[in-house]
Amino acid sequence: MTVSPSPPFAADTGLPWDVAVDDAVGAIASARHRYGDTFALRSGGDNYLFTFSPTGVESFYALPEERASKGVADYLMLRRKLPEELFDGRRVLPGTLFRRDDVAAYLQNLKLALERTVTELGPAGSVDAFDLTRRLSHRMGLASWAGPGCAVGDKFDRLVTAFDILDGSDAFVHPDTMAEVEASGKRAERAALDEVVEIVGASVDRWKGDTGGPDSLFCRIVTAWTDAPAEEQLRGIAFDIALIHIASMSNLAAAVGWTMVDILEHPAAAQRIVAGDADLARRCALESTRLAQRSIMSRTVLKPVHLDTGDAVYDVPPGWTVATLLPLLNTTAAPDLDSWDPDRWTGHRLADVSALASPALVTAFGHGRHSCPAQPFSLAAMTTAVTHLLSSYEMTPGWSAYPRPVPAQIGGVARAEGRCPISYQAR
Ligand code: HEM
Known about the structure:
Elements: H1 24-35, E1 38-43, E2 46-51, H2 54-62, E3 68-69, H3 70-78, H4 100-121, E4 124-128, H5 129-145, H6 153-165, H7 170-173, H8 178-183, H9 187-209, H10 217-224, H11 230-265, H12 267-274, H13 278-292, E5 296-301, E6 305-308, E7 313-316, E8 321-325, H14 327-330, E9 345-346, E10 349-350, H15 375-392, E11 393-397, E12 421-426
Parallel strand pairs: 2-8
Antiparallel strand pairs: 1-2, 3-5, 4-12, 5-8, 6-7, 9-10, 11-12
The structure holds protoporphyrin IX containing FE.
């Protein structure tokens, strides 16, 4: 079964999971340049229909989940890295993280994590921007859902090590390493998962003897497993926590990292944020996230769909993946979008979309039914984190040129290719 009418076919283009590419986004950009805004390609035995036209992107965001599934596309991507058993039988899923009281609890945990970060950093020194934000988001996340004692001391360090091995985002940040992961039978990932079960298990025992706060997410996860056979309980709880942590934290950590980088490149903005301009900090977070977006947005077709791209209406059969790529839209859909300008945002929206052929062409957190349910929380967390860190320290960037994203990355928020040292001195 194939797409009808036949779109241009980029026979010379493959995706980084299947072929060696120097620059994953550049390879799709080159195909678009040669074949137009809508084209097909085949990679690793899978068929993809990419679209970048204004109508095509709008149609993409309107695809119904039951016919063209984001959930299935995400699963197929993440399972390249994560052991299959992690997805089986989950009872509390990442999509249920945002009940109203939950967000307040996560933000409270972020404040505690920031205080601990400042203690760890001490009065002066040097730190990598992305190491700093990654450790911070591990700490906030584990305090929010991994149970008593998991965000401090030895347990925390062991969990950080385990989650750095079990990092689902490797599937799109380092797609070129997935063949190796497959060949190893995911041995390292399974060992890391066992470590998570052991540590979380100890904290479940402690919670049962103590109390974890009656309505915390951790408490809800433990409660969801009370009727399971004893031998399944601990693994079930630990796997729910692991999937939530893996699915939620790494893009947020990277986005805070780029926000720090961009603000440090703009000292006037840094000064206003330290003086208390939280609205500017939030707009900086949106702007840095927009520019750092490397997301491949994909939908796995389960039942036939029509995709209107403006110049044609394609019938796309089951088995195909419909996709678009944010870095090819976010910075080029109108003049001047390649520069960092937090003033282009008002609220959560672009202030002026008149130069865009469609507002759907630019985004930080997505459009339509699948747009990010964590956007308000993420922006609040990013604003709090950068404000706290910049107010605690005078920071000086140590990079000689603006950091570059990992070239093979195709998905999520960019990770930096090299080190991004910041030297800091307490204010
Ligand atoms: C700065 C950090 C983040 C960015 C830039 C971001 C970005 C996005 C984007 C662009 C989408 C839409 C993807 C698509 O349409 O294919 C999305 C969806 C989603 N995000 Fe986020 N996200 C962030 C943080 C988080 C966090 C912390 C969570 C925590 C659970 C989260 C959970 C989700 C979920 C569950 C969806 C899928 C919603 C659905 O399918 O209906 N995100 N995110």
